Amino acid sequence: MNSASVSGESSLSDMIQTVHFSSGNPRIGETRGVMHLISDNAVSSSSSSSSSNLPIGRNPLVCVLGVPNHMTYADFCQFCGSFIQHILDMRTVRNDDIENRYSILIRFDSQESTDTFFQHFRGKQFNSLDEDVCRLLFALDVQFTGYSGSIDHTQPSAAGPIEQPTCPVCLERLDQDTGGILTTMCNHSFHCSCISNWPDSSCPVCRYCQQQPENSVCCVCQTTENLWMCVICGVVGCGRYKEGHARRHWEETEHCYSLELETQRVWDYAGDNYVHRLIQSKTDGKLVELNSHGSLSKDGCGSCEYSDSGMTDALLNSKVDMYFEKLLQNVKEETEQKISEAASKAISQRLQKLQTRFDRCVKEKQFLEDLNENLVKNKDVWSTKITEMKEREKKAVRAKDEKIQGLEEQLGNLMAQMDGESEVSETKEVQDATVSTTNTSSSGAGNVIHANKKKSNRRKG
């Protein structure tokens, strides 16, 4: 019995995964801790939705590991969907061994809700356009190991996240019975329904963003210490206690305002003092107004020497106005130059098009003139030909008329001749008819005599 329990404890310890985490704004204070998770090996790979496949000894606490940084708090609340009403609290933390991702600890109101959430979202894609899937693990417990910061904080208990008495958005009490509570990376708590309406990944209280930028380096010497960024063009350079590339950038470009990346304070190289108006409170991380400016002490440290002098503010405003007036003048000159160049280019292109069109018109005009000249020559030739044809036609008509007249005369003579010959022919026919009649009668008597002679000869014979 004892050996079985020992083997069970050893197998359980083998299935426990220890993950170190941290939370909080590093510029104010950072809370560190350890969470003990039940590894994936303890969960059955069966597709059945029965709770018998889930590990024994689990709690209504799960951890979503490796959430992409581009997912905001509102995106994750939308991803959880209908399970939001069963969530008591959520806490966003950073994992020491995972970059560009964060994890979320979620505590539910019952084990049944926890199991259903685990089975529904385990291995599910966060969205259809993202290949990342939801990696869910049951959490046995969460232990906070320490705090480092500028002020003292009471160590939070493992039972729940650090809570504020009221939600900074709706000013209602943060009560788990009325709705889930979400604690951001910087340890500020909100109602889930309130943070769901926040559009980006920054905190509504301190503006701390979970999507941290990459480590900046000097654009010249590549150092990562004592960095300043030009607030005009964004160039990052090292301070005067390194190689002084930030100051050299001001001397070359006259961009006199530079932001110290470590303290987020703005330095004016022209006035040789700090000119920022908002600073981040080391108490709660909120942005507060600074009514005076700090000056740089002889030892190189920024000391805040507060002054309410109106003359200083007027001088500072005058410098700012002069600087931006110069910027506006430069922009105006550049704009006018660009407009002039664009106008000259447009005019040149227009002139080139007009010249091309003019050359084409000249060619067409020359072609038409040559065509007209040829047509005029052809007109003279054809006029001569037409005159000659008319003359020939007149001569032909005249000759035809003369020929017709001669033919008519010949026809008249012929008709007269034919009439005369007809009369002579008729007279001759009459005469011939008379002679023929006489001959006929005489020939008939002769024939009778001849016939009688033949008969008499026959008789004789």
From TrEMBL:
Annotated Low complexity bias: 433-448
Alphabetically ordered keywords of this record: Metal-binding, Zinc, Zinc-finger
GO molecular function, one term: zinc ion binding
Region (Disordered): 416-461
InterPro entries: BRAP2/ETP1_RRM, RING-H2_BRAP2, Znf_RING, Znf_RING/FYVE/PHD, Znf_UBP
Bias (Basic residues): 451-461
Annotated ranges, domain RING-type: 167-207
Protein name per its UniProtKB record: Zinc finger (C3HC4-type RING finger) family protein
Organism: Arabidopsis thaliana (Mouse-ear cress)
